[in-house]
Specification:
Elements: H1 3-25, H2 31-35, H3 45-98, H4 102-126, H5 128-133, H6 135-154, H7 164-168, H8 176-180
Helix pairs in contact: 1-3, 3-4, 4-6
Length: 184
């Protein structure tokens, strides 16, 4: 491969990966998210930007390494898995932050985890360094899956998800005796 081809390939994989990041950034934590019950081990909001930037850099580098060594003709399956997990990655933020679907976000995150494990394994078999570079991403997504499931649990495991109106409605004032009658 000539240098121009390598540079264009790198730009392609980094551009594609950061396009998914751009889509994900369009759906950010809002008032609804801030009012959800979350576990004490939820990372602070400021941490997500730097972590995801590093993870997207590692993802793009992994895909580029596999593509650069094997191309689509010999690594099409592994690169297709990469594209699928990238789409699932971008979809999670829409499902969780825009649609407010905690349960669907959890199940989507489980699917992302499985797809990501398959991607990392396929990359490892082709180019071990590419597989190793995916390990921090696998760990973070596993953590995100646990966090999403915990947030869903803390907010009622509702099959009919919480709506914006439910979360944002002002609290109703009631007589103290009404609180005693709550039964779960």
């Amino acid at each position: 491969m000539d240098v121009i081809h390598i540079i264009l390939g790198a730009l392609q994989w980094f551009g594609l990966t950061f396009s998914a990041a751009w889509i994900a950034c369009r759906f950010m934590p809002d008032r609804w998210y801030r009012r959800l019950e979350k576990p004490i081990w939820t990372p602070p909001d400021w941490l997500f930007g730097p972590v995801w930037t590093m993870l997207y850099l590692l993802m793009a580098t992994s895909a580029f390494l596999v593509w650069n060594k094997y191309g689509w003709s010999h690594a099409g399956g592994a690169l297709s898995l990469f594209l699928l997990q990238l789409a699932l990655n971008a979809a999670w933020t829409w499902i969780f932050f825009d649609r407010h679907q905690l349960g669907w976000a959890f199940y989507e995150c489980v699917g992302l985890t499985v797809t990501l494990l398959a991607t990392a394994h396929a990359f490892w078999r082709l180019e071990p360094l590419a597989g190793l570079l995916m390990i921090p991403y696998v760990a973070w997504v596993f953590f995100a899956t646990l966090l999403t499931g915990t947030i869903w649990h803390l907010n009622g495991w509702s099959v009919t998800e919480l709506t914006t109106a439910t979360i944002e409605a002002p609290a109703q004032k009631s007589f103290p005796s009404a609180d005693v009658q709550k039964v779960k």
